[in-house]
Amino acid sequence: MTPSAPALLTDLYQLTMLQAYFDGGMTKTASFEFFVRRLPEQRNFLVAAGLEQVLDYLETLRFSDEELAWLAGCGRFHREFIDWLATLRFTGDVDAMPEGTVFFADEPILRVTAPLPQAQLVETRIINLLQFQTMVAAKAARCTLAAQGRLLVDFGLRRAHGAEAGLLSARASHLAGFDGTATVAAGMQWGIPLYGTMAHSFIQAHDDEAAAFEHFARSQPAANTMLIDTYDTESAARKLADLAARLAPDGIAIQAVRIDSGDLAEHARRVRAILDGEGLPRVRIFVSGNLDEYAVHDLVASGAPIDGFGVGTRMNTSADQPWLDCAYKLQEYDGQPRRKRSEGKATWPGRKQVYRHRDADGGLAGDLLTTVDDPADGEPLLVPVMRAGKRLAASPPLAAVRAQAAANLAALPPRMRQIAPAEAPPVTVSAALRELAETVDRRLQSTSPAVR
């Protein structure tokens, strides 16, 4: 479980609305849904991630004495409201797509049904958690597809946008197919395999590069990847032959080399030839240095003899698409479907379900977006995960979530597994949902005075 966020880690308008709801007695049941309005131009799909952290947050949500005292002193809220906040707990229901599920625009991946103030308050943190991990998981999934089975390691903590982002990006990338991470806390918290090499500073701290390699190999006999591009990449590769002979009597073998600069494909070819010529065919070649799915794709397509990739900054920050056009919107209140009609941001009303249809081989054939009371053929993607503020079951282990993501990626049509943009996703809006939208529009028109 990640550390719970303070209740005040939210937007001010959540609290000002809550006081107005409190004053007006507006506490009836509401349903909100989180969805992405449109896919980024660079994405053919997204991968649901972050649900475990959302459930952690909801189960532990409460205002601390310190927070309540601060609210009392800030001058914006009255005493009765603050006293009510002291007793606030999340008592609602959550339905969601399992983490690792591939999804598309307008498809809700999470629905919260709770008394209106509770469902409203949690908006900011839910968006914060789901958007980030979903965004990183989608980027990591594209790297996974591009790598075609080669080793992938998350290297991005140092340039992540804060500690929580670095930790959660390790989780999201592993969920989406990365083999491991360099982030040690992620290994402790979720059991993600840890990978690491050495920094250039380690080589530079020694007077002799070969001595640095030997020092490291004897210190880490079972996990030694040598960084060979500090001075001259090919020269360093040749030095490893002599070192391997000195280490062999002690049962120590060199596992891999890492190349972090220059023309990675060409260096990999030259280093592979040197290692093979020196009788070291089992030493693997691992590369890093501002990589993303596009670079990985090109390196694989070039035929370069690369066994693995360290991917960091561009994946952990989702550099080409560092945000999603996502929302958490009211869909129903007091038994009435609700709909936002803002220009360019209109929503489909009511509580919804997504049904996935598959072809004869189990591949994704299309999705149907419809209302929850319009059962359809196919696999319903939103499932109950929380009732009355409590999980229905323990969150699945990350290995199971990873398997879910792998199965979803394997089921994508070939055109959608490509790095290049594909045609529009196969999503159909049901007649029942369209009819509900028309009904809500008519109700709004009948209850709103004409504009003069």
Automatic annotation (TrEMBL):
Gene Ontology terms describing biological process: NAD+ biosynthetic process via the salvage pathway
UniProt keywords, alphabetically: Glycosyltransferase, Ligase, Phosphoprotein, Pyridine nucleotide biosynthesis, Transferase
Keyword Ligase: yes
PTM field: Transiently phosphorylated on a His residue during the reaction cycle. Phosphorylation strongly increases the affinity for substrates and increases the rate of nicotinate D-ribonucleotide production. Dephosphorylation regenerates the low-affinity form of the enzyme, leading to product release.
Boundaries of every Nicotinate/nicotinamide phosphoribosyltransferase domain copy: 152-331
Reaction(s) the record says it catalyses: 5-phospho-alpha-D-ribose 1-diphosphate + nicotinate + ATP + H2O = nicotinate beta-D-ribonucleotide + ADP + phosphate + diphosphate
Pfam family, one: NAPRTase_N
EC number: 6.3.4.21
GO molecular function, one term: nicotinate phosphoribosyltransferase activity
Highest taxon in the source lineage: Bacteria
Pathway noted in the entry: Cofactor biosynthesis; NAD(+) biosynthesis; nicotinate D-ribonucleotide from nicotinate: step 1/1
NCBIfam families reported for this sequence: NAPRTase_put, PRK09243.1-3, PRK12484.1
Function description: Catalyzes the first step in the biosynthesis of NAD from nicotinic acid, the ATP-dependent synthesis of beta-nicotinate D-ribonucleotide from nicotinate and 5-phospho-D-ribose 1-phosphate.
Entry's family note: Belongs to the NAPRTase family.
Protein's name in the database: Nicotinate phosphoribosyltransferase
Organism: Aromatoleum tolulyticum
